[in-house]
Amino acid sequence: MAAVIASRVHELTVQRRPFVHATVVRAQQPTSAVPGDDAVILDDGSIEGFVGGVCAETSVRAAALDTLRDGQTLLLRVLPDGADAFPQAPGALVVVNPCLSGGAIEIFLRPVLPRPLLGVAGTATPIGAAVAELAEFLELEISKPMVYAGASAVVVAGLGRDDEGAIRAALDAGVPLIALVASRTRSVAVLDSLGLTEAERARVRPHAGLDIGARTHREIALSVLAEIIREIRTGGVTPPPVAPAAAPAAAAGEGRNLLPLADISEMSDMEVPRTAVDPVCGMTVVVGADTPHAAVDGVEHWFCCVRCRDSFVAAR
After folding, report:
1. Domain count, the chain
2. Where do transmembrane segments lie in this chain (predicted)?
3. CA nearest to 291, candidates 80, 58, 95, 97
């Protein structure tokens, strides 16, 4: 199973699909999981792999989706009902799961988010080459030439070599930030020649880069990327959503090293899975096709496990 999950982690990373890698680090009998068991939780709440029975999965699924939203790693400790209190600590979350048959389990949740995608037009120029070189050092992912779908930003550094075409391509791809490397005078001339709408023009940064007194090609590249990173980090850039590649069937037997500059902004357009509160035990559950469910007196209810559902229905 470990080899299967490792392969899936690589595949999802290549696909640029957000997910959480969950690994059991400690388990107490009689829980069914053992240290080393792992799984991936996708952005739709589905789980591939094994980190415990259905009751433990309920807690893992809810916590994993939270880590996708904030990008932070988390140590999740799941206790059965009636267990001794365990102190909360930074980076850790303790939950009591009433439907656990016994035993505690600790699971490390590592969200893996796509690195920001950067387009660079004009890599043959000294400044364009310096931007690409520095972007690699900063662990930004460089898109293929003139393929800008899903990019957080595009740097146009052709220095007069079809800058207009690169800007138009980036605008048409929905790129939210286009950094034009040009003097103020030429920037105005380039933008005026394109006949942009007010909304399109607002997405282009003429004479891009923070004012750091840059003179050399590398210093100019640094100023441009500093402005882009500032926008990514402060939420000023939200890249257009890109549909993920189709996920293969889940592995048989299913029931931080946070990436530098992980693009949490890509999660802003994610369709957040629906949640509900189990009316028996009070747990928050993620509603999915396999979530125990019952309709009583015309009201829909979802449960953490079959036992809670059956006891609820029997009491009606």
Report:
1. 3
2. none
3. 58
Q: Which residue type does 109 have?
A: L
SS3 label, residue 183? coil
Please, what is the average pLDDT of the chain? 85
CATH of the domain at 165: 3.40.50.720
Contacts of residue 243, Cβ cutoff 8 Å, sequence gap at least 6: none
Structure tokens belonging to residue 208: 């891009």
Cα–Cα distance measured from residue 30 to residue 152, given in angstroms and rounded to the nearest whole number: 47
Same domain, yes or no: 263 and 279: no
**Domain around 300:** 274-316
Peptide bond into 30 cis (omega under 30): yes
- Contacting residues for 28 by C-beta, under 8 A, at least 6 apart: 103, 104, 105
Place 298 in a pLDDT band, splitting at 50, 70 and 90.
confident
Least confident of 76-90, 109-123, 144-158: 76-90
The answer to whether the beta carbons of residues 173 and 151 sit under 8 Å apart is yes
Between CA 101 and CA 107, with CA 103 as vertex, the angle to 5 degrees is 110
Question: What's the distance, CA 291 to chain centroid?
Answer: 24
Encoding tokens for residue 200? 């399109």
CB-based contact 109:64 (threshold 8 Å): yes
* 76-93 pLDDT, tens digit each: 999 887 666 566 677 788
Pairing of strands 141-142, 105-112: unpaired
Read off the pTM. 0.71
- Would you call 199 helix, strand, or coil by DSSP? helix
Q: 7-11, 224-228, 275-279, 303-307: which range is least confident on average?
A: 303-307
Length of the chain, in residues: 316
Do the Cβ atoms of 151 and 119 come closer than 8 Å?
Answer: yes
Nearest of 228, 213, 212 to residue 157 by alpha carbon: 228
